[in-house]
Structure formats: structure tokens, C-alpha cells
TrEMBL record:
Annotated spans, Disordered: 1-20
InterPro entries, A to Z: CblAdoTrfase_CobA, Co_AT_N_dom, P-loop_NTPase
NCBIfam families to which the protein is assigned, alphabetical: cobA, PRK05986.1
Molecular function as annotated in GO: ATP binding; corrinoid adenosyltransferase activity
Signal peptide (residue range): none
GO BP, one annotated term: cobalamin biosynthetic process
SUPFAM superfamilies linked: P-loop containing nucleoside triphosphate hydrolases
Organism field: Dolichospermum compactum NIES-806
The keyword Disulfide bond is annotated on this UniProt entry: no
Name used for this protein in its record: Cob(I)alamin adenosyltransferase
Domain of life of the native organism: Bacteria
Amino acid sequence: MKSDTPEELNTNPADQEISRLIDEVISSSQTDEKYRQKMQRRKEVQDQRIAKAIPEKGLIIVNTGHGKGKTTAALGMVLRSLGHGHKVAIVQFIKGAWEPAEKRAFSHWENQLEFHAMGEGFTWETQDRDRDLDKAAAAWEKSLEFINNPDFKLVLLDEINIALKLGYLQVQEVLAGLAQKPADKHVILTGRGAPPALIEKADLVTEMTLVKHPFKDQGVKAQAGIEY
């Protein structure tokens, strides 16, 4: 997937104005009054953007890319949503052969959270494509229950992008399911290799970029609290 450069990302005039004001503050020696004036201008620009913003809506959120942190970022949103008292559902498409630590941590919110780890591990561990297909189909059926249930504010489909990439699920099937969600429901889809059609449909897409990795670069094995 093509990554936008900072220049390409910063095409909104309001964003450009804010960036210009920040650059001026950083690059020049400012008196207290000039600093106050520039920050006031920045506040005015930001307030104008907020005033023009559309009402709240349920978002389709995609965390993809080869870097670490896709699930971790999604779990942060889960924690935030739980903190607001919302009901949340997590369906994990690959994990399941072991109990992830996050499931134990989230047990404190058992009245708000449904957690289903429905995979059987990495594909090179299972070595059974038909069984992987069945597991992915079952996980998707469970996901649809939560997507269609208006009681759940947030649904996390962890590593569903991998299931899509491997052909265990069809992207059109997933898009059709997402189209059924209530207007105020948020759905997060994680995993590398998110298909272009899903990225096009999403409201928020973040691509995690791999810069360094302890296993790849140093041979450090997965560690409790970091990878699982």
C-alpha cells in the first residue's frame, strides 16, 4: 500500500495554517505577546474546524501495515470505550491456541465486554487450511452478531485482515456485513495486508511502519507483556 508523504497528508488549508504557525513559533525568537497572538490564531483556526465538523458517526477503523502495534492501538480504544461505560466485543481471528494476557486483564469488565479468541494460532502452526477456513467462518459469524447488536458500541475484529489476505474470508462479504452496522457503532479491523476495498470503505486508516524489530534484527523471541 502506498504511504503518503507528510506533504501529501498536509493538504487541508487549515492543517497547513496550523503547521505554518507552529513552524514560526519554533523557528523564531518570539516575544510573549507575539507568541500569544500566534497561539490565539491557531486556536481560532482549530475552533473553526471543530465548528464545521459533522455530527458524531460510527467509524470503520483499519490498523494495518508491517509494523507492530496494530492490535495494541485497537486495545487502547477498547479500554477508552470501556472507561466511558460502553459495551465492547472483541473477536480474535488468529489467536486462540493460547490465552492472550489482554483477555485476563479485561476480565475486570466482564459485564461490559465480550471476548472471543476463535483462531488456533498462526497458519504455519495449524497446517490445516480447511480447519482454518472453518474457524474463520465461525469467527465472522460471531462478529456479525456483535456488529448487528445495537447494545455494543465498539467491535474489534482482531487480525481479520490476515484472514482476508489468506482468502479465508471474502472482502465483499465483510463489507456487506459492515454495511449492516448501526450508524453509531465503531468497528476496528486489524492485521497486515488490509485489502484496498476495505481501506477505501474505512473512515480511519493507520499503517504501522516497521523500522526495527527485536526478533528480525536481534533474534529476540516474543516476550510476555510485549507480544502477548
